Amino acid sequence: MEGTELAGKILSTWLTLVLGLILLPSAFGVSLGISEIYMKILVKTLEWATIRIEKGVPKESVKNSASVGIIQRDESPMEKGLSGLRGRDFELSDVFYFSKKGLEAIVEDEVTQRFSSEELVSWNLLTRTNINFQYISLRLTMVWVLGVIVRYCVLLPLRVTLAFIGISLLVMGTTLVGQLPDSSLKSWLSELVHLTCCRICVRSLSGTIHYHNKQYRPQKGGICVANHTSPIDVFILTTDGCYAMVGQVQGGLMGIIQRAIVKACPHVWFERSEMKDRHLVTKRLKEHIADRKKLPILIFPEGTCINNTSVMMFKKGSFEIGGTIHPVAIKYNPQFGDAFWNSSKYNMVSYLLRVMTSWAIVCDVWYLPPMTREEGEDAAQFANRVKSAIAVQGGLTELPWDGGLKRGKVKDAFREEQQKNYSNMIVGNGSLNSESN
Amino acid sequence: MGSRSSHAALIPDEDSLRRETGFSQASLLRLYHRFRALDTNKKGYLSRMDLQQIGALAVNPLGDRIIDSFFPDGSLQVDFPDFVRVLAHFRPADDEDAGLRDPREPEPLNSRMNKLRFAFQLYDLDRDGKISRHEMLQVLRLMVGVQVTEEQLESIAERTVQEADEDGDGAVSFLEFAKSLEKMDIEQKMSIRILK
User: Fold this and answer.
1) Partner residue facing B1 (CB), from A93, A100, A128
2) DSSP tally for chain B: helices H, then strands E
3) Which domains does chain B have, with CATH numbers?
4) Residue B184 neighbours by CB under 8 Å, 6+ apart
5) Which residues form the Phospholipid/glycerol acyltransferase domain (chain A) (predicted)?
């Protein structure tokens, strides 16, 4: 008897604490400063750990920064690599250039490394990021053990509870709001529900987000584009403003959430069959942004999750709709927790567990000034322009490759471009050397 | 998941591999990690598919030929030692190599002759020791795609074979190939320096 009473008391105190310290402040968008204290302690601990590791390890075995490539690259264009002026003839040695480039790609290529988590410069006391950091001292190991206990026994249950509450509130809240007739009250309530629940969900990940340039926050009737690292991106952005999401109708829990939130505010969900019809998709999105009262659409033009060190090709479909594009750059700090979802390695549940047992999710969000397509610029060029802006702001490298490479083979069009370049060199503008003799 | 040990003991026959290829221990370790990263299903060897997944290689006009050089004699798998042996051809020449080499030991994999042999076998598909006009044409076609007409390509191939062919047999042997490139700075064109 006493056992269950005790358990009941603990549960109710626990829930009251959670309600008072987390849920209510989220509803009002206020912070009590508990997370800040946690973060300060965390930063101090990690700094201490870094110093200990550097003292304990001889200099040679410390890895260089992961951003420097492992081979010396000669990035000069094909003309220089083939050591010739335009219109020179084919030589037997031309094959060297291509074979060297090919073998360089085998040793190190820009794309494959983007689909695995970023390497850390110094260990952050999580087993999963331990690459070659050996045993240093007893104190460090004790701190690590303490970290494990804190993360798995204190933080994980708290976070799971919060996430559960957050999702349930979202589903229930939006279903309730959906019952109301369309009016400004409904929109206001739906925004309130969305914001509150996303804030709760972000707290469930111990998320610390810094927003920059809030004056450029996406406006109604616009399209918001951002680089994609994980499904959490959606929560990160929605904490500071409401968006209309675009996506495919899914089954299971996601489907329930989708059906609930679309009652409260007009998100755009497509059936699988509709997604293949590009005209239909474009038409529906155009209709959405034409209505000035509707929320800005949120799109991730890369189409897949990248590891947050680079930005890959933006698919031009999103840029053909027209309207104003509001770019947003999101950069996570990997020291506190890796947010990248490696979908080929982890499914959604194990990914969420990993995120919830990290220290925290810390990220910066930059809002960029709105952009529109200029005269004489086609959708692909416009997409590249926006991509560059986001890459520069977030400090990410720009890659021309398609993120879909991790699943399929590359398009022949890229190879044809190289072949065209080479042909122009050896054949010139349709005249061979022998003819000019 | 979990930790990757930095110990070179992971690599089988590390010492003999190091002597044979001339790579430093650190480079060998880097290449081993790269091999493991490319080996998507953790099979312990690489197949053609694994190499074809590399975007930058797939768009290379000679991509397929380069992949072929890892799979001689119709084999379907390449293990780590063979992988490294091919890459060793592109190791920059060390300055100490030149004078101190024991003439009884086999030539280092990254010697000038061996680099030329690597390039030669990109042309010589049937491995008969000669590059025929037909083989020259095939390589040219790979490099230009559909951009150049058959006649133009044939005249280029004809001219190149004629220039290099000394004994008049209508094909380029390895020695003729090496002779026509004797003035070329092979070292700079066919070397990849691993930084760490």
Assistant:
1) A128
2) 12, 2
3) 14-88 (1.10.238.10), 107-196 (1.10.238.10)
4) A93
5) 222-333
| Token pair belonging to A233 | 């991106």
Q: How many angstroms separate the CA of residue B103 from the nearest CA in chain A?
A: 28
- How does strand A223-226 pair with strand A207-212? unpaired
Instruction: Report the residue of B53, B109, B110, B158 to disrupt the A interface, i.e. the one with the largest count of A CBs within 10 Å.
Output: B53
A303 within 8 A of A248, measured Cβ to Cβ: no
- Cβ B3–A127 below 8 Å, yes or no? yes
Report the alpha-carbon distance of residue A402 to residue A408 in Å, rounded.
Answer: 10
Residues of B in contact with A414 (CB under 8 A): 55, 59
Query: Which strand (E) or helix (H) includes residue A247?
Result: strand A244-248
- The whole-model pTM stands at 0.70
How many other C-beta atoms are found inside a 10 Å radius of the C-beta of residue A17? 11
Count other Cβ atoms within 10 Å, centred on residue B168: 7
Q: A-chain residues within 8 Å CB-CB of B58?
A: 409-410, 415
CA dihedral A224, A226, A228, A233 (to 10 degrees): -70
What lies within 8 Å, CB to CB, of A372 at 6+ separation is A323, A324, A325
Helices B14-21, B80-88: crossing angle, 10 deg rounding: 20
Which tokens is B196 given? 């760490």
Nearest to A422 by CA among A48, A91, A121: A91
Spell out the per-residue pLDDT of chain A, length 437, in tens.
677 888 888 877 777 777 777 777 766 666 667 777 888 888 888 888 888 777 766 554 444 444 446 666 666 666 665 654 445 666 777 788 888 888 888 888 777 777 777 766 667 777 766 655 566 677 778 888 888 888 888 888 888 888 888 888 888 888 888 888 888 888 888 888 888 888 888 888 888 888 999 898 888 888 999 999 988 898 899 888 889 888 888 777 788 888 888 888 888 888 878 777 878 888 888 888 888 788 888 989 888 888 888 888 888 888 888 888 999 999 998 888 888 887 777 788 888 888 888 888 889 999 999 998 888 888 888 888 999 999 999 888 888 777 666 555 566 667 777 787 777 777 654 444 443 33
Q: How many CB pairs under 8 A join A and B?
A: 172
Who among A100, A105, A416 is closest to B54 (CB)?
A105
Q: How far is B169 from chain A (nearest CA, A)?
A: 18
Give the whole-angstrom CA distance, residue A245 versus residue A238.
Answer: 10
